[in-house]
Amino acid sequence: MRGVLRLVGRKSSLRWFNSSLHLLIILILLQDSASSSIPQSSCPASSSVFDLFISRYASARCSTAAETKKGNPLLRHDEGLPQFQSIDVDQVKPGITKLAKDFEAGLEVLETKFDGLGDGVSWSEVSDPLERLEAPLDYGWGVVVHLNSVKNSQKLRDAFQEVQPVVIKTTSRLSQSKPIYTAVKKLKMSGARLDGVQERLVDSALRQAKLGGVELTGTTKERFNEIRLRLASIATQFSNNVLDATKAFSLELTDQRDVEGLPKSILQLMASSANPDNPDVDNGPWKLTLDLPCYEPFMKHSTQRELRETLYKTYLTRASQGVQDNGPIIQEIRTLRQEKAEILGYPNYAALSLSSKMAKNVDNVWSLIHGLRDKSKEAAQRDLKQLQDFASSQGFNGSLQLWDVGFWSERQREHLFKFNDEDLRPYFPLPRVLEGMFNLTSFLFNVRIKPADNTVETWHEDVRFFNILNENDEHMASFFLDPYTRPAEKRGGAWMSTCLGKSELLNHKPVAYLICNQTPPIKDKPSLMTFREVETLFHEFGHGLQHMLTTVPYAGAAGINNVEWDAVELPSQFMENWMYDAGTVKTVSGHYETGQPLPGTLFNQLVKARKYMAGSAMLRQLYFSAMDIDLHTSSDHWLDVMKRAADEYTIMKPLQEDRFPCSFQHIFASAYAAGYYSYKWAEVMAADTFSAFEEVGLDDRESVAQVGKRFRDTVLALGGGTHPQQVFKKFRGRDPSHEPLLRMYGLI
User: 177 by DSSP, 3-state: which?
Assistant: First the structure.
């Protein structure tokens, strides 16, 4: 999913320099996909995508007239959670416009006040009025951004794109305010007794102010702001092109031979897509789409090689042709990011991005990538040879092609481990998975999760709402869950983002959005999840737990705020590991017809299968990471960069027509630019973290609970108030080691 920064005091707030960085959208890469699919995400501290978002973690009172608030829900920042059912697209432009005007008027008053501050300025003098100023626009724009991701329509897109420049200009005015910047510098030099979290947040704010252009002047400042506006606009266009290209393709199948080998679950999905009112699973028609719940199982199970080839080539060339061609946008984004970096005094955009991350510099990122490359590449070469030998032994003639790998790897996995993804689905109905995940959370972290459906408004009938209660049964946080795919209006992937953040000043408890795109219920069957969908849910819930279980009193460092981006995936990837614990799987699984948990023999095979083609999976991630860094340090055309990375980090070379960067939303329409390596950086820490539980024995519930408490008191509680290196040491007692990760995948 994060580098989202905020500076807020116990009874005060100081987060203004980071107001363009606050929408946190955390995504998980579906690593087992046989395609080049990259679900969309989350956020380097200076990412251009966050130049188009502002924080919305708090609400307070503002000058908006009561009668106006009654007419426009986007202005009701002081009335609790968003009233989604009352929001109309026609309210976006007037609502955001008014909020922006009120914001600018309030800023002028505040700047005048700050000009009169002496050298002995206090934390609350600077912090409190800033948070109150930001809150209304934070709230209204945050709702619009969220709806644009989960209820996308052409009308909403148009409104979003019309007001987006207004928001960017307004927040730029704040982030580049010299009076406020001077006030924060005075605070740092005042000798005021700041606690450790406050000191860290002051330093973060000053650094981000510089990255936001506060020290720029004249035409340089004008050009910098032009770049921010343009990057925001074309990032949105990039994302829209991917969504439109994905929706544009469908293939209606009517011949039984075209669906040979497909499991019942995918046939039901395809039949429902072809004829929602009266699907005929047995006789069709069946609609084939590029939506991941359809695409991935088709590539794994279809016996029709020509159809697999067609689908594969269509998928990897999404958004690379005609009016949806993202190729020119890629080049423009790279050019503008490079110019932005140079304006700020950095040699390239990667150096700018890494200046606020744990890795610090490009050399350290290459050290991580190269350190994992050799072992994973050697293993990936063995994987491919074994796969080719297996396919040949089963009657396949010729060399495997890219559209064959998913199909034959699934057949080999079935042969080796005696199960496939479809065998697992019946054991993972969503209601049982949620119950088990909540039970695990209660055991590890001493909280209780309680359904609260129908107590709040939601944006879709499938969305659920839950409250989290502490050990004293007191409400401490809440979250929305939007689990199912809706390709016509909801972008792909999975993410956690913030509805409200913790703020003691504003007396706000944290509320999260957890968004997935899993298989929906079909007729009388509940949502039967693939194992990877279960892992994805655990992943996003891990992000949510860090957001919701924070104990930091300052909103700027509560939860994920102010956490270095390459550390933010730690709790999410940590949570995935519990799906390889026998006790957890017994709790999480239950056959939708019989209620019986996943059989032990099947679970044992599942654990063994985790290491299956692990070298190939890791090399694939390193390929994306290397390409990302090269794209943001080199001026070569993006196709040349892609080829260079492929030469070193792939065993089967991409097709000549491969254009997967045109749908690589992580780095071109989201927050992983020069930061995609963060998945592996954090996975090293996550594997090492989970090994602490393994060391005490996963069956030793008392010891596991003690380690769980330590995890909650450090990783989940300390948030961005302490550097993640120190947080890890507090939990583990030492620096992270690569060995647990390599051992987990059988690479040592």
Answer: coil
